[in-house]
Amino acid sequence: MGVGACAGYVRAGLVAVLLLLLPTPGYSQNDQRSASEHPPPASASLDPQDLPLKELNEIKKSNCTRHYSNPLNLLFLLPGMLFFLFALVTRKAKNILPFFFLLLLMASSEQDPYISVREAQRSFQAGHYTEAIELYRQAEQALSCNPALLYNLGILSHYLGEQGYAIHYLRQSLREKPGDPQGRGVLQSLEQGYGLVGQVAAPFPVHPDLAYLLLLLFANASLIMAAFVVRTKRVQFLISFVLLTIAALGSFTFFVGRLRSESRSVGVVISEESDLNRVPEEDSKSWFELPSGTSLWIRGQFGDYYLVETPSEIMGWVQTNTILLD
Questions:
Q1: Which domains does the chain possess?
Q2: Which of 34, 309, 53, 26 is nearest to 173 (CA)?
Q3: DSSP conformation letters of 58-101
Q4: CA distance 172 to 186
Q5: CB atoms within 10 A of CB 272
Q6: Residue 86 pLDDT > 80, yes or no?
Q7: Residue 280: phi, psi to the nearest 5?
Q8: What is the pLDDT of residues 162-204, one digit of tens each?
Q9: For the whole model, what pTM was predicted?
Q10: In terms of DSSP bridges, do strands 295-302 and 274-277 run parallel, antiparallel, or are they unpaired?
């Protein structure tokens, strides 16, 4: 099979990818809310068997990663950049391939904290929820930023009647692992069971690292195809280069959109009695009372008050000690 035939397959595949990728950046919070208008039926008094905890093996595999925040990961663009540079200084494109594949081969070349997790799971199965949640909190100090652990804390908070903390922990879990279908389903069920309406939508179910990976892949592929364009001057390579560049730009737009979404602060009301005040003063008149578990956009802070906005675009002030930030 010739290189030209491969380019044809690349173009066909890219067209299919672009049809799926291009609508993605336009995803809005309203679309997400409308997609979940009919969450599964739930009750605020579910049995433990209805909301099981994450198992120990899943907790061991769970972690918080933000590869896009590490500048060293930009070195993954080196293969494409070097491929393009060698295309400019060598006479034949085939001379580049052995060097490129060599780069790929080179690139591919205290107390156990889970004791508390095991004890917490045994306490949960025995119905000792207060003991279980304390053990999970001890494990959280040693296993910082663990989505599965945060999910379990949310479940236990629910069984202890702390609905604000339940929503907070579940949202934190989804922030770190947005593609978890179990966590998304439980969050929707509990919000419905608590009678919470007009909530801030859960994070978009694609991790920013995935968008970052797509960006690196398409950028590398675009640079490689640019090298073929420089050396061969063939139209089919130029078309593939244009399609790859569009895919890279689409991935970049998607990645920036996810970063913007991540940067927007959300808070969850944990107090049983919290008012949305009109001004940041203790004796201020309030717009209305906020139920425990209500999620709000955080717009600013003044003294002991957060300036918040509801998804229905009502702004007001809430005391900082009644809210936990995601």
A1: 3-26+67-109+206-263 (no CATH), 29-64+110-193 (1.25.40.10), 266-325 (2.30.30.40)
A2: 53
A3: HHHH-----GGG-GGGGGGGHHHHHHHHHHHH-S-GGGHHHHHH
A4: 13
A5: 12
A6: no
A7: -80, 65
A8: 989 999 999 988 888 888 888 888 998 898 888 888 888 888 8
A9: 0.68
A10: unpaired
